[in-house]
Amino acid sequence: MRSPTRTTVCAAALAALLAGAFPPAGAAPRDEAPGARALPRAAAVRDGIPPLTDDRGRVLTLRGWNVEDKANRGDAALSAVTERHFRDLAAHGFGFARLLVFWDDLEPRRGRYSETYLRKIERVLDWAHKHRVQVVIDAHQDVFGPAFGHRGIPEWATRTDGLPFTPRPDDWFSEYFEPAVQRAFTHLYEDEDLRRAQAAMWRVLAARFADHPAVLGYDLINEPMGELREGEDLAAAARRIEAEQLTPMYRRLAAAVRAVDRDNWLFVEPTPIVGEGVPTALGRIGDPKTVYAPHFYNTAMEAGADYDPEAGWIEAYEAAVVEYPKAYKVPVVVGEWGPLNNSLPHMGRFYRDALASLNRYSSGWAGYVWCYGGGYCALDAEGRFRANKDATAAPYAPAVAGAVREEAHAQDAYRVVYTARPGVTELSLPPSARGWRVRVEGRARPDRTEVPAAGRATRVLVRAVPGATVTLRVTAR
Question: Please, which of 21, 91, 195, 341 could form a disulfide with 438 given CB 3.0 to 4.6 Å?
Fold first, then answer.
């Protein structure tokens, strides 16, 4: 597809382009335009949790979505993912994608890696780079893999010891508790040959894509589960699995990736039981570029219930999820979130509460899922946001060249205060019929902006004097 034209203009033209943006330094601050939602009081950012950074030391904030093709495999793998996904992500102001890949497609026969599949992944990454979308490559599994009718770990790596498995198509997540599935996880974690095979798979992926400019990191396994012991409750089982099986697995896989890639981030997930407000028992991974990457799902809402603001679920989840990054000083990026039914009466409140929570502790998130249609899809068939999902498109700073001191978010306003370092700070402003006002306060100046085609996000770049305290304010016109 032909990418929309982008025009770069000098700083002197920015005011006209952004409707009076960037008034002179010293002008009276104005936090909001008429009709704009009031920003919450700015607060210290992510207390005790370090930020995600890029190779220039800039503080990153990731806003994006999962991109997937679970339906097609083999020669048709990834055929449902097109350049349109990344063009539209960028058009709405998102700069991040979590790309699902499957071990069963990469290594359908033991020791035989599919060059065709690697080329397909590379083509997708090329589209992402073209549209300035950073990608985390996710080694995805659902209910272990194709031996149980899903995707993920190859059949040749699935060992069940003859235990039973009963498909439950109306409640697929419950299949994780089938004896055969649980035993398969135990063998993956404990059988030495399967450990070596999983590490080898990651060496192949990381060696191939270590230097691709779109790649930010690797999510080492999606939603890992394990085997419950007799008499063990789910929370206790999750914590044991995380401490005794997932932690050593992540250390092995980190070593495998680092043998071929020293630079990209490693994303590690707890079990999905974190969604019940259970703090993880993962241990220290021991790699300086580790990201904690939990998912943010509620059991009742996944079963079709409306959001209950009085239930305290978001508060309990947040309290649980911050323990690990505070203890081990690692950033947080939530790898999946978003309910199936977004049109229920309280879902508008859910998105406001969820985004406020995510902004308090995380360096970013990927909603589930960027596709066109029904179900979990972010967009309808015509490419319009489905009910309440437009709340995810808001102004923010994808990269800040400096130490962030305060941040405040709303759907139609944003403010960030930082102590500047050398480099360029980026603002992303989603499409808006009203337009945006941008103020720069402190020893800083707009470097340039990129004028979008109609219906596309605006990107504003700001450069500041190192050491200066800078405030950037964005409000809707």
Answer: 21
Concatenated DSSP letters of 68-127: ---S--GGGTTTT--HHHHHHHHHTT--EEEEEE-HHHH-SBTTB--HHHHHHHHHHHHH
Whether the full predicted model's pTM is greater than 0.85, yes or no, is yes
pLDDT value of residue 455: 85
475, 33 contact by CB (below 8 A): yes
Q: What is the pLDDT of residues 352-363, one digit of tens each?
A: 999 999 999 999
Give all strands of the β-sheet with 436-441 in edge-to-edge order: 43-44, 402-410, 413-420, 469-476, 436-441
Q: C-alpha angle 354/270/317, rounded to 5°? A: 30
Evaluate whether 124 touches 100 at the Cβ level (below 8 Å): no
Rounded to whole angstroms, the Cα distance separating 225 from 297 reads 15
Give tens-digit pLDDT for 316-335.
999 999 999 999 999 999 99
Q: Which structure tokens are listed for 327? A: 């203890």
**Burial per residue of 126-137, b for 16 or more beta-carbon CB atoms within 10 angstroms, e otherwise:** ebbbebbbbbbb
Residue 32 burial by Cβ neighbours in a 10 Å radius (0-12, 13-18, 19+)? middle
DSSP designation for 332 = B
Q: Cα 414 to chain center, whole Å? A: 20
Q: How confident is the model at residue 19 (pLDDT cuts 50, 70, 90)?
A: very low
**Which H or E element spans position 440?**
strand 436-441
Which amino acid is residue 100, in one-letter code? L
d(CA 81, CA 84): 8
Residue 398 has pLDDT above 60, yes or no: yes
**Helical H segments across 115-221, by residue range:** 115-130, 179-190, 192-209
The amino acid that residue 346 corresponds to is H
